[in-house]
Amino acid sequence: MEACVEQVRSVLEEHQVAIYLGAIAIGALAGLGVPRVSALGAAINPALAFMLFVTFLQVPLAELGSAMRNTRFLGVLLATNFILMPAATALLVQLLPDEPMLRLAVLFVLLTPCVDYVVTFTHLGRGDARLLLAATPALLLVQMALLPLYLHLLLGSDASGLVRPEPFLHAFLWLIAVPLLLAAGVQLVAARTATGERALTALGLLPVPATALVLFLVLAAVMPQIGEAAGAALTAAPIYLAYAIVAPVLGWIAARSGRLAPGAMRAVAFSAATRNSLVILPLAFAVPGGVPLVPAVVVTQTMIELVSELVYVRWIPIMAGSPN
């Protein structure tokens, strides 16, 4: 039984990029061609929570305590996400037309590091997902505090007042805390009973299919929104592409300068490149007079980022050193 499960798991992981590309392509086609498919957006957060649950099962949660005490990693991670990447973003946004709504949308998403599926892609890319998971509360709290300040500096005081804490807190509770507690419970049962161990082994098959499901749902749901403000989305796309290329390199440089281990270097590179688009989306819809432009520009980054992640899972392990 275990040998069969491991064989299936190896096949899924070996072909994961092809599976993800297929999910993205099918989702994009569905979003463009199937009426009311955007209603699938309501399923994104539950699917994302399940994806994170099965990812957390693969991470030794009993070691989170030691990960939390890794102050060097946390310092490099915070400096990368809240000093280095905002500076790069401030430069990139100057290449946009002087349109406040467009710049607001780009800043919303590029100034906020991801706290959810970045853990999954870090795990798939052989980064230290345990360290990144332990750092998620700090990432969340710091971005909540600094996003209004950055918007004030770059756009003025009116923009800073658009940031509300509810989406961030909701994301932490349902996408981090609940899946994490459930995964810890399953790991505890698996350590004590044969049935729990078999269940844990079987659930080990699901990270790739769960990630593919999330990719499908996101693309199917966001494609119609992009179509409503295609001009603004196309204007922002080159900025997002430039960020996707530069960000992991800057993250790797910062991690290397901090003399981190290869797994930790990969985690910083993934974090630098992966943004909090799904959490920011409710803020985008709440901007007065911002619909459909602001949400469309935000989800454009989501599409570019998800495709980029498929490159990162192969490229970042090579860039940041051989596997431990």
Automatic annotation (TrEMBL):
<dbReference type="InterPro" id="IPR038770">
    <property type="entry name" value="Na+/solute_symporter_sf"/>
</dbReference>
<feature type="transmembrane region" description="Helical">
    <location>
        <begin position="171"/>
        <end position="190"/>
    </location>
</feature>
<keyword id="KW-1003">Cell membrane</keyword>
<keyword id="KW-0812">Transmembrane</keyword>
<feature type="transmembrane region" description="Helical">
    <location>
        <begin position="17"/>
        <end position="34"/>
    </location>
</feature>
<dbReference type="InterPro" id="IPR004706">
    <property type="entry name" value="Arsenical-R_Acr3"/>
</dbReference>
<keyword id="KW-0813">Transport</keyword>
<feature type="transmembrane region" description="Helical">
    <location>
        <begin position="40"/>
        <end position="61"/>
    </location>
</feature>
<keyword id="KW-0472">Membrane</keyword>
<feature type="transmembrane region" description="Helical">
    <location>
        <begin position="101"/>
        <end position="119"/>
    </location>
</feature>
<feature type="transmembrane region" description="Helical">
    <location>
        <begin position="202"/>
        <end position="223"/>
    </location>
</feature>
<feature type="transmembrane region" description="Helical">
    <location>
        <begin position="229"/>
        <end position="255"/>
    </location>
</feature>
<dbReference type="Pfam" id="PF01758">
    <property type="entry name" value="SBF"/>
</dbReference>
<keyword id="KW-1133">Transmembrane helix</keyword>
<protein>
    <submittedName>
        <fullName>Arsenic resistance protein</fullName>
    </submittedName>
</protein>
<comment type="similarity">
    <text>Belongs to the arsenical resistance-3 (ACR3) (TC 2.A.59) family.</text>
</comment>
<feature type="transmembrane region" description="Helical">
    <location>
        <begin position="73"/>
        <end position="95"/>
    </location>
</feature>
<feature type="transmembrane region" description="Helical">
    <location>
        <begin position="131"/>
        <end position="151"/>
    </location>
</feature>
<dbReference type="InterPro" id="IPR002657">
    <property type="entry name" value="BilAc:Na_symport/Acr3"/>
</dbReference>
